[in-house]
Amino acid sequence: MLAVPGLVSVGGQETILDQRETNSLAKVVGEAVKSALAMRVGEGERLGQQIRDELAQVTGFTDWFEPQLPELRQAVVDRVTERIGAILDSQIEPERLAQEAAVLADRADVAEEVVRLRSHLATFTERLEAGGTVGRTLDFLCQEIHRELNTLGSKCRELGVVDRIVDAKSAAERVREQVQNIE
Q1: Distance set, CA 8 to CA 2, 18, 156 (Å)
Q2: Tens digits of per-residue pLDDT, 17-71?
Q3: 94-111 exposure pattern, b = at least 16 Cβ within 10 A, e = fewer
Q4: DSSP H or E stretch at residue 18
Q5: What whole-number distance in Å separates Cα of residue 50 and Cα of residue 30?
Q6: Nearest to 55 by CA among 147, 118, 5, 132
Q7: Which residue from 14, 21, 38, 102 has the fewest beta carbons nearer than 10 Å?
Q8: DSSP secondary structure letter of residue 16
């Protein structure tokens, strides 16, 4: 406060505080600091709860999505097989068609992204609960969570999944916005 230009000016002997005035000023400043700290702690607790709630949505998506991976992979294989078969009008051997479909399904596999997403979510939660100066770490983890969700969205185009990925990405974005308010 003393650094604010024009707020306090000291010019001579009359501006020196006596002991009673010094004690009163110290008391007022001490109460103001305690009040400001209490306000920041309360704000931090509310912010932390909001972040946990949003993060729970991303975790909920992951919990819903992961068990469906085998079915999603098979859906890709079936769709690719059908498309290639229609294009080639069945002029290709069924074994070769199955091999090509399996290669394309493997490229569309998202199991690794799900593993990384779970890891980022767990690390985020651990760091948030640990407290302290975690803002930059959480911001980095938000970027990684968003990256994995983007990859899932680009690789997995199944009906019903895309909408949930968009919802998870929205929750992750709300987390990122709040994390930027954390030290």
Answers
A1: 6, 16, 63
A2: 788 888 888 999 999 999 988 998 888 888 889 999 999 999 999 999 999 888 8
A3: eeebeeebeebbeebebe
A4: none
A5: 30
A6: 118
A7: 14
A8: S
Q: Is 122:116 a contact under the CB 8 Å cutoff?
A: no
With tokens 């479909």, the residue in question is: 101
- pLDDT, tens digit, 9 for 90 and up, residues 87-99: 766 566 777 777 7
> CA–CA distance from 137 to each of 120, 122, 131, 142, 179 (Å)?
11, 13, 11, 9, 9
Tokens of 80: 């690719």
pTM of the predicted protein model? 0.71
Contact 69, 110 (CB under 8 A): yes
Q: How far apart are CA 182 and CA 47, in angstroms?
A: 9
